[in-house]
Amino acid sequence: MRSKKSLPTPRAEQASFNWHPPGLIAGVDEAGRGPLAGPVVTAAVILDDMHPIAGLADSKVLTAAKREKLFDEIRAKALCFCIAEASVQEIDEINILQATMLGMRRAVLGLRLKPVLVLVDGNRLPQLDVPAEAIVKGDALVQAISAASILAKVTRDRWCAQLHEQYPQYGFDAHKGYGTAVHLAALREHGACPEHRRSFAPVAQACLARVQ
Predict the structure, then answer these.
(1) How far apart are CA 115 and CA 117, in angstroms?
(2) Is residue 191 helix, strand or coil?
(3) What is the pLDDT of residues 19-30, one digit of tens each?
(4) Helices (H), the chain
(5) Pairwise CA distance, residues 207 & 187, whole Å
């Protein structure tokens, strides 16, 4: 029989919960992992069962107008929420995955109420001091995650609109920083702006081409 010392350390934060403990449950999601520019925006939300919000869904399947409406409703009706981010500099220093986890951790720590359980969209978990579960496609399955996805998406889209005013030559208002043909052509023509992620290959290649 193996001694207790030889047993593997349990990783409760990655356990799959067949039931949810009584108490506050937070949903967490991000927006902006894939784009070539800007921060990755994260959000954590604890909904209020006494003030339900109709129409919550994965932010990607909602129209921009619907997201904007729900953004205001979530902020008004949720028990608490926190919108956080990891910067371009952090993304370039520690990579986009670790920066996303950092942003999610900041969002959870920023909640004014402490949840007993955190449900995170995807298959990875940030380091937290409360139990957490990763749920693939959670933004379509769990209302609190849907709410978090909407807060993160609207916040980042608004950021892109502001960036477009500063750097209209890139078209951030349309592609939101993703590597579209128009964006890549602008990178080749104008090089990278300060908000581009230089650790991302298309940006690095554009910068190198400009030097050469």
Answers:
(1) 5
(2) coil
(3) 566 789 999 999
(4) 64-77, 88-94, 96-109, 138-141, 143-166, 172-175, 181-190, 201-211
(5) 8
Q: Are strands 132-135 and 117-121 parallel, antiparallel or unpaired?
A: parallel
- What does the DSSP 8-state code read for residue 112? S
**What Å distances lie between residue 151 and 13, 82, 147, CA to CA?**
24, 9, 6
CA-to-CA distance for 118 and 128, rounded, in angstroms? 9
Cβ proximity of 125 and 131 under 8 Å: no
Model pTM greater than 0.90?
no
Q: What is the pLDDT of residue 28?
A: 98
3-class secondary-structure state, position 142: coil
Give the Cα separation of 53 and 133 in Å (integer).
Answer: 23
Residue 139: name the closest of 70, 77, 84 by CA. 70
pLDDT digit string, tens, across residues 58-87: 999 999 999 999 999 999 999 999 999 999
